[in-house]
Amino acid sequence: MSNSFVGFYTSPPIWAGEAPDLKDAIIIKDLSNIMSHIEFAFNYPDFNLSVCRDGMIILDVFEMDERAQQLRKVPPEMCSWWNEYLSYLNCINLFLDNAVDLIMNHVYLDLSEITNKDIIKVTVVNNSRICQPPFPIGSAISYQIIPNTPCFLESFLSDICEAKKKNNDAINSAISAYVLNLVPELFSYRLAIPGAVFAKVAESLSLIMKEKQMLPLIAGIAKSICEYKVANYPVSLTLAWFVIESMLQKKWSAFLEEKNKIYPDGMKRINKERRDVLNGRDYTISIITNILELANVMPIEVFANLEKVRRYRNRVVHQDHADKCTAKHCDLAIKLAVDLLSEALPIRIMPPSSYFVPCL
């Protein structure tokens, strides 16, 4: 375990816990420290999840730390390592979106995909974070990190200090009023999210840590929902289909394992050669789903919907412009992906319930 973490901001910004009283001059003067303070911390055997007052979510996955020590500092290995960490962060972002909706009955987050442009390395000292430059250039961070730095806040307060030195009450009063009005305006739009929401996020992540092989699939459905929210339907459907196909392959493998047995003479019903054929190119997803439905492993309604989504996906991939991919197509694809994931997971992921249109 280390005191070096990976952090990111949500979009739009949030407060962790109660919003500070930004009409109080004393609080404004100490706002940078207040915002950097860790408001909630959740410690599990596999990870630590912390949330600063200004909404920065900080994660430390112990197994990832250990692997980082063994990595050769070459681009392919480092990129692969960061990509896996991004899967954790995108899962957290999805869990937070679901938890806000579930506990607060409020649709607030944009659920934008977390990329390497949105993460920042953080050191934690005395229950407060210190961001390590260079800072990334993601919109969520660039919008928040500047008003959150001491130099930015001090620029507001410098004129007040000068006015006090000159003992000019009129100037001091005018500048103080300006600052006290401006700072609340900068932060007034943030939603205050209670600790119960972040506790739910940490609990969901702890359950997923027991099914780490599912992590890329959960991150994949999070990315699909992100694309859905901005009406990028072809990409959303393709990402959802990737999750669907992966889950169907897992279901097919479990089916073959169930049907396998060893005869008295030691011969296996499904030996390596036969398994290779059953997992080969001749057994497409269409054939696999047909077999699973005929064997009563899959309900007929699920099979029919899978066939619809498979045809939608083929039209997208082959650029069939006669049938445009729509929200309706993606709704079905995401719902199927979520249902298949939920069969194998101890948590339930909620499909998207809103759109995000910037600047509107």
Question: Could you describe the 3D structure shown?
Answer:
With 360 residues, the protein is an alpha+beta fold. It has 2 domains: 4-209, no CATH class; 231-344, no CATH class. Helix content is 56%, strand content 11%. Helix 10 (233-259) packs across helix 12. It starts with a strand and ends in a 16-residue tail after the last helix. The model has no long low-confidence stretch (mean pLDDT 83).
Q: Give the C-alpha Rg.
A: 25 Å
First CA to last CA: what distance?
Answer: 43 Å
SSE class: alpha+beta
**Number of DSSP E strands:** 8
Sequence stretches where pLDDT stays below 50 over 5 or more residues: none
Helix tally? 14
What summary fits the major beta sheet?
6 strands, antiparallel
Overall pLDDT metric: 83
SSE string: EEHHEEEHHEEHHHEHHHHHHH
Give a summary of the structure in a few sentences.
The chain is α+β, with helices and mostly antiparallel strands and 360 residues long. It has helices at 25-29, 31-36, 62-70, 75-104, 139-145, 150-165, 169-187, 195-208, 215-229, 233-259, 272-278, 285-294, 300-317, 327-344, and strands at residues 4-8, 14-16, 38-43, 47-52, 57-61, 119-125, 128-131, 191-193. The longest helix has 30 residues, at 75-104.
